Every structure is written in C-alpha cells, then in structure tokens.
Amino acid sequence: MLQEKGINLHCVCSLTQLLSVLLANGKLDKDTVDSVHRFVQLNQTQDGAAPPSTKHLKKALTYGERASLAEHPLAKKLFRIMEDKQTNLCVAVDIVDWQKLLQLAERLGPYICCLKTHVDILSVNNFQSFRSTFGPQLNELAVRYNFLIFEDRKFADIGNTVQHQYGGGIYYISDWAHIVTAHAVSGPGVIEGLKKVVNGGSATSSNRGCLLIAEMSSDGALATGGYTKACVKIAKQHKDFVLGFISQSQVSDDPTFVHMTPGVQSEEAGDGLGQHYNTPKEVILGRKSDVIIVGRGVFSSENPVHQAQLYQQAGWEAYQQRLQ
C-alpha cells in the first residue's frame, strides 16, 4: 500500500541487532531478550501466511545424540549418564559438615547426574584426615552411582595463582573433582593455568574439565552481554578443557557444549539475598539449558531423597517435552 503511494521502506536495523544493542547497554535484561527471540521464532510469517507450527522447527537433539557429537570425553560421559539414568538433575550440597555431605551423596546418588560442592565452606578440623577421606570416598560414590563430581570453586585469578589453587593448597581439588568452574574475567590465562595442572598431574584431560560462568542467577549480576559472548569465545578456543557453561539459558547453539543452570526450585521465587529461582520446566524447556542445579530445594528439605526424585522427574519431563 505504501509502495503504491511512492513510499519505499528500508530496514536500517534488524530486531536482532536492536535487541543486542539494548542488552549490551543495560536497557533490557537477558530474560526479556530470550523471550522476544522465542516469540519471533515461533511467529515467523511469509506473505501474510499463518505462523508455522512448532513441529516444523528444528528438532532438539537427545542427550545420547549429543554424547556422540561431544568433543570432550567428560562431556560425552555426562551426556551418557543423563541418558542412561534419565536425569538432568545436579544437586548442590552447600552444607558445612563434610561427613554429612558424604552421607547425602550416597542417598542422592541414584537420582543425579552431578553432585556440586563448595569445598571452601566445609568445616575441617583435621586436614590430613579430610584429604585422605573426603576425595576418595566421594569418588567411590560417584563410581558406584554413576555421577560426576562438580566443585564450584569459581576460579578467577591469573593462571599461575589458579594453578596452585586447583592442584594444591589445602584442598587439592584436581585430585577428586571431575568438573570445576571458572570466571573469564582474568582472560584465557585462567584456563591455561587449570590445564597446566591436569597436563602435569595424575589426572588426565579426559576426566577433568571446566565450566565457564557465562551468566549467574543473582539479581544485578554483571555477567551479561559482551562478557557472556567473550566466555563463549574462550570456550570455543579451549574445547580440550572447557565442556560448557554455567548460564541462565542457552548461550551457545553448539550441541557439544553442556549448559547448567543454578537457582532452580519448584516455584519461581527469591531468597531475599539476591538469588532468583526458576522452575525446572522454564530452565529446560523455555531456556534450553541442559542441567538443572538444585540446592536448598533438596538438601534443606525434611526428605531430600523424595525431593530429589521430584526434581529428577520434573527436569526429565521438561526435557521430553523439548524433544517433541
């Protein structure tokens, strides 16, 4: 109609470009941008035609199919564990009693793909006894129940420092944790430092790996926009050690990367300390993440095993819906 009146319209900026600019400048948050992207994807039209049905969209790959594609041996193993055990649940056991942590690990083992720890919050009186007991017993449980150990250390220093933090110090994390986390704020040197420990120690790169923290679940987190993109770039350059991301949604469409999302509870809420919770369905189906990380929703309940079973079921059902 406009063209008939001699008016020609030209696209100066695509919606995708506009959203990227608004996100980078803090005018929109990542959740809003993701929501708009999903809406646009589901409502594409051509010449006035009706939006296509969701069944014509690209079919999601199964965990088993992604295991075959994965380049890092640990990513392959994780995808296979998830497929075999029918679970995408990682439980964060953020408690200070390390003996109770081991007890919970044994009870929750059958229902999880990963167990997440924060070793530096544990109350330890005898480090010699702790070192000779904690790691070996946790690894024995991981083998028995087929899950991976994930130490959420969040390494963030220069390469030389993280090398000592990972391979030595008082916790010797590289001796017992399959997966660790790292911030990219100090650049790729943090990855090089971690890799140096693995390449020069008893562990091998095939059974040790890292998740880069591309996004966080706390209000006001600065890991957004350009920072998130930089994390993805670093991950692609270090696929021999980086197997994926900690994120609030899918930040890379590379199916060989694993996405794990913290801050998951059965209902959307907050804890009054800046933590925001999302449901398993929103995380797996809506945000296209792969693994739900649940902490207080399991270990603080009166029946942690029952809660773990409920989250396992909820996460798996969301995954099955995603495959349809």
- Derived from helix and strand composition plus strand pairing, the structural class reads alpha/beta
Radius of gyration computed on alpha carbons: 21 Å
Q: For the largest beta sheet, what order do the strands appear in spatially?
A: 1-2-3-4-5-6-7-10
Largest sheet: 8 strands, parallel, barrel
Residues in β-strands, percent: 5-15%
Summarize the amount of helix as a percent range: 40-55%
Show unreliable segments.
42-56
- Span between termini: 40 Å
Continuous helix count? 12
Shape by Cα distribution: globular
Number of strands: 10
Give the averaged pLDDT, no decimals. Answer: 87
- SSE order: HHHHEHEHEHEHEHEEEEHEHH
Oligomeric state as shown? single chain
Describe this structure in words.
The protein has 324 residues and is an alpha/beta fold. 43% of the residues lie in helices and 13% in strands. The chain has helices at 15-24, 30-42, 63-69, 73-85, 98-108, 127-145, 159-167, 189-200, 225-237, 280-286, 296-299, 304-323; strands at residues 89-92, 114-117, 148-155, 179-182, 209-213, 242-246, 258-261, 269-270, 276-277, 291-294. Helix 5 links the parallel strand 1 (89-92) and strand 2. The chain is globular, with a radius of gyration of 21 Å.
